[in-house]
UniProtKB/TrEMBL annotation:
Pfam families, sorted: FAA_hydrolase
Domain of life the protein comes from: Bacteria
Entry coiled-coil feature ranges: none
Gene3D superfamilies: Fumarylacetoacetase-like, C-terminal domain
PANTHER family listed in its UniProt record: 2-KETO-4-PENTENOATE HYDRATASE (PTHR30143:SF0), ACID HYDRATASE (PTHR30143)
Entry keywords, A to Z: Lyase
Protein name: 2-oxopent-4-enoate hydratase
Molecular functions (GO terms): 2-oxopent-4-enoate hydratase activity
GO cellular component: cytoplasm
Source species of the chain: SAR86 cluster bacterium BACL1 MAG-120920-bin57
Amino acid sequence: MNLNTINDIAAELFLALRNQQTIAPLTDKFPEININDAYQISRKFLSLREEQGEKIVGKKIGVTSSVVQEMLGVNQPDFGFLTNTMQVLNKSDFSIQGSLIQPRAEAEIAFILKDDLHGPGITKEDVIQATAKILPCFEIVDSRILDWNIKIQDTVADNASCGIFVLGEGECPPDKFSMNTLEVEVHKNGEFLSSGVGSAVQGHPAEAVAWLANTLGEYDIPLLKNEIILSGSLVPLEPAVPGDKFLMELKGVGTCEINFI
């Protein structure tokens, strides 16, 4: 895929984000698009946001569950970038209209780094050592692709379907618990919705972060001290509409809450 086409697609995604509109699947319009093309589009899409003043505050991992990977026909996760405008305060009343298109909530474990991580060669143990703390987090994914009709190239190009994220209250050192057995419980509108454990994310959330560090290392992009790293959902994605209230508890760590209006 040539550079002009990559830039044009990135501009189309950027316009869709700004206008809160969807576009047709990229893989329908450009059957030749591959993963590397998609990551180039994602980087250009990000640069357009940076030109508008957004600042990178972290990274996110997506497509971590086997069910989603099977749906998209891949055997590995993907990644996107978090910016300051994506972060929403815990317990906020957040208006979907004008901000999100077709949001879905994910309950995750967020990592806050105290040291840089630059792959390749990063291990789960390296991630734990480089992490200052973990805390509960909601990521609200949102696709600029019509009806979530995505293949892996679509979501990669669309910054891994990033929408917004919420860091909760309560935190602990990364070695206080065995993260693969940490349990999350999610409630929607006051009723139990779902539960999951850390092993749903690549067997261990720190393994997912190690994958991210090593994958980004191939592009000479480090994970940086103080960055926020979202490690992937422990539960199935849940659509959100105005009036929905989501609460998650990461057992022994803390809670996170967001209310949609």
